[in-house]
Amino acid sequence: MRRIALALVGLLVATTVLAVSERALIKALPERWKVWLEGEIYPLITGEQRKAFLKLTTEAERQAFAEQMWIVWAGENELGPEFRRIYEERVQDARELFDNTIEDRSRVSLLHGAPDSRAKVDCETVFNPMEIWQWGRLAGLGRDVVVIFFKPYGLGQFRLWDPVIDGRNALYTTQGLNQLESWRTGSSSQYQLARPEYRCSADIDILRVLELAAYWMNDLKTKQAMQHVPLPPGGGGNESVSQRFLEFSTVAPEGAEKIEFDFAATVKARRGGKVALALAGTVPRVGLASSKVGELEVVKLDVTGQVSRKGGMVDRFRYAFTFPAASSELPIVIERELRPGTYSIRIKVADENSNHAAVQEHEVVVEAPELPVPSAAEVAGNEAIEKVAKAQEATLLLRGPEGDGVSGVHRFTALTGPAVTRVDFFLDSRLILGKNRPPFDVDLDLGPVPRLAAVVAVAFDAGGREIDRKQIDLNVGRERFFVRLQPISASDRQGGRVRAVVTVNVPSDRTLQRVDLFWNEGLA
Fold it and tell me: Which residues constitute the domain of residue 143?
């Protein structure tokens, strides 16, 4: 018995220490994240996700974690991609209606939205202040869900009524309980309409509402749904997301012994619109543990990093390095591709076989290397392009149905200039028809149901050379992120200038910040 008592005391002490530690971590958070965690998404976040978030130390990591969690929560909610926008509107509504986001009414409205019916009961002679909320339907619960909020003893904030914990008497004032007792013991008890509750409202059958609220709140599933968003079937799906995020975190384990290492950043060659950046450094072998792989003794290093710019994470990485244990120095080389700019790069190196780790952070300026001087052949090619650019007439225009919900057979017509002698029509990169005389049109079967499809018309001159192409994208959908640079034809090049057209489709829960256009690897 003494052992059990000691074990319970030890468990209580450990729990208290953990609670104090978590409070300290929350207190150390920037105000923005403190409000987000404690006052906004608390009905959504699980215990493991909360612990994972509190382990993060940089603004970029917290921002990236929050974005990832919104994707997870949207996937678990029937609202889908709209969930984040709707939830943030609920937060704002709670602040306006209740002056806070944490009392019971606020929490329930965050979880389920505003009720279809909200009735106040102000009847001081019988009831404490009450609000009756009713939804026509709640996902996962059913139809005509009713709950009651009340002010205990008429004081403080509204609280969700629990018939098991609070009991029905908690809804009544002292005067109301006395009246109810008088009715029960008096001669009028045989008359149901003589009950004191019926003096409060002619519009609400208050006794029926109390029965309905008791019915719903006696259901464990309903009670849990009013406290927190239900976990997905099987538990841990969303927990694994936060765990995977932590695996890429650049936070050193608590109590880790420091590893001495350094790294330097070197800008290398261009790769399209980006620049290759090499991160190289060495880690001393001294103090690191080793393990056997087959017959070979090796040292294993886990290297994680994050690249942030203006407070937002733009890249993160994780690499595993294995070295022979006999090595005195362990070289690390990592290469990433970034656009020109100033970045904060944070790298963590950890020994997989011991509690050795260290984190370093540096600011790196990535400058684009100078473009090479064009060769004579390239100059000649550019001159030829400029000659073609002098054409004033549109070479090719493609006309046909556009937008969403397009299916079945539709006609697409290519309007051409005089230089065009043949037009090929493609559907999803597959050649459907080539025509060598006007009218240049084709009937395409897009299938029985709407689906993402691309129709392309390619124009050729008398010599068989491609001189222009145009494309129509169908059934892109509202929730697909879509960016496409339309083909640039000779008619788009006039007087040393080039006209570029970009087609962009942005999901409803996202906001397009900008579109970057690059000309000869430089930002236009």
Answer: 116-228
